[in-house]
Amino acid sequence: MAASNITSTHPAAFLLIGIPGLEHLHVWISIPFCFAYTLALLGNCTLLFIIQADAALHEPMYLFLAMLAIIDLVLSSTTLPKMLAIFWFRDREINFYACLVQMFFLHSFSIMESAVLLAMAFDRYVAICKPLHYSTILTGPLIIKIGLAAVTRAVTLMTPLPFLLRRFHYCRGPVIAHCYCEHMAVVRLACGDTRFNNIYGIAVAMFIVVLDLLFVILSYIFILQAVLQLASQEARYKAFGTCVSHVGAILSTYTPVVISSVMHRVAQRAAPHVHILLAIFYLLFPPMVNPIIYGVKTKQIRDHVLSLFWRKNV
């Protein structure tokens, strides 16, 4: 088998176990995963189609939403097809370099997602706190710069990881106790001094989550102050209503991260499959629910979807 052919530095391929301890349930576990992935594909592709087709939706809020939909599509498609291949066909082998590419895309697009959520918080801040200057602040060139900055930050932070992993000798074998190539799961197989990888991985995660979440919270503190100063209760409800979808997206993204982080520290002796299921939940839940949140709570998108169904029925 190719997975056992060891070169001077690394195996030709890794073997992904899937979900350790639940191998006998892989087929059954794959059913909700496949359903969630299908919903994610349909929902995000529908969002992109609606935003692209309707010129009225070519506004900053919806352009950021389109970025989020693309990121969610990439995040879920980076891992789920291979995961389902493991569950259905026991296709556990993954080429060493394909593993590094999967890991790079997975972590890079997770960082991009955090950046886009921050940009959407900035969009809501400008819309509510500086409504008269909204169109002059959030111009097309600025949106492009924000998108490029999100990509640049993610690629810059994640580019060192594949090169760092290439230099290790993997003397602990080619078997990864996971269903996709996650950074620390690969590092655990390496020999030698992996402290820099451990520290770098934790530092990047803390930097992204803490910094982005801090600015999101600050944005909503200013938004709350501005909304409470509005004269009528109806105006307050309307202003808050424009933020509900974004708050839902933030909760759907960061809640699994916080739960997984707490579980790693509080329940260190928990079975490995608990942590892996939480990690999969983080990858699948936001791409699945974000289109639903925005489809239900955003009137323009909801009306467009209903009109599409109405035309089909007529």
Automatic annotation (TrEMBL):
Keyword Cell membrane appears in the UniProt entry: yes
Record domain G-protein coupled receptors family 1 profile: where: 43-294
Database matches in InterPro entries: GPCR_Rhodpsn (IPR000276), GPCR_Rhodpsn_7TM (IPR017452), Olfact_rcpt (IPR000725), OR51/52/56-like (IPR050402)
Membrane topology (UniProt): Multi-pass membrane protein
Location of the protein in the cell: Cell membrane; Membrane
Molecular functions (GO terms): G protein-coupled receptor activity; olfactory receptor activity
Pfam families assigned: 7tm_4 (PF13853)
CDD domains: 7tmA_OR52K-like
TM annotation in the entry: 25-50, 62-88, 94-122, 134-155, 199-223, 235-254, 274-296
Keywords in alphabetical order: Cell membrane, G-protein coupled receptor, Membrane, Olfaction, Receptor, Sensory transduction, Transducer, Transmembrane, Transmembrane helix
Coiled coil: none
Gene Ontology cellular component annotations, sorted alphabetically: plasma membrane
Protein role: Putative odorant or sperm cell receptor.
Family statement: Belongs to the G-protein coupled receptor 1 family.
Protein name per Swiss-Prot or TrEMBL: Olfactory receptor
